[in-house]
Every structure is written in structure tokens, then in C-alpha cells.
Design goal:
Radius of gyration: 27 Å
Keywords: Membrane, Transmembrane, Transmembrane helix
Helix content: over 70%
Transmembrane segments: 38-55
Number of strands: 0
Structural class: mainly alpha
Largest sheet: none
């Protein structure tokens, strides 16, 4: 979950910077289209962090529960050689 929050922070910083750069580029007559593209790129950079936080969280919780159950499972070790000798 820490990864998702770090990715969100980085994504927000990128979005803020691309918004500022996009606004400056839109002031120039021939580069206004590039300003729009830069701002769209900033929004696209938020895709992964939001995906982690909103959709992959359930999968991560399910995996942690399964690993917790496995960590607390009982384990019995049986020596195969000694069990054959006792039966035969």
C-alpha cells in the first residue's frame, strides 16, 4: 500500500508540473497544441497510482489474508523412511 501512496504523490507532482508547463505553452501561438498534450500526459501519469489505490487494493488484501493463513497453518513433518519401516 505504501507503493500506491508514493506513486500517487509522484503522480500529483508530475501533474502539477505538467499543468504549469502546459499553461505556459498554451500562451505561445504555435505551441498551444503541445500545451494540451503535456497536460494530458500529466493526467495519464496518474493512471497507475489510482489503479493501485482503487482496484488492486482488493487483490492485495486478499493476498495478505492468504499469506497470513499460510503463516499460521499447522505443519507436520513425517520422516518417510521411518514410516515405511514401521508399516512393513
Amino acid at each position: 500500500m505504501r507503493l500506491a501512496w508514493r506513486a500517487l504523490l509522484v503522480g500529483m507532482l508530475i501533474l502539477a508540473s505538467t499543468t504549469l508547463v502546459g499553461q505556459e505553452l498554451r500562451r505561445l501561438p504555435l505551441l498551444d497544441w503541445l500545451g494540451e498534450g503535456v497536460q494530458i500526459l500529466g493526467w495519464v501519469m496518474l493512471w497507475y497510482p489510482l489503479d493501485l489505490l482503487l482496484f488492486q487494493r482488493r487483490e492485495a488484501v486478499a493476498e495478505l489474508r492468504a499469506l497470513d493463513a499460510l503463516a499460521h497453518a499447522g505443519v507436520e513433518l513425517v520422516d518417510r523412511d521411518s514410516s515405511r519401516g514401521a508399516a512393513g
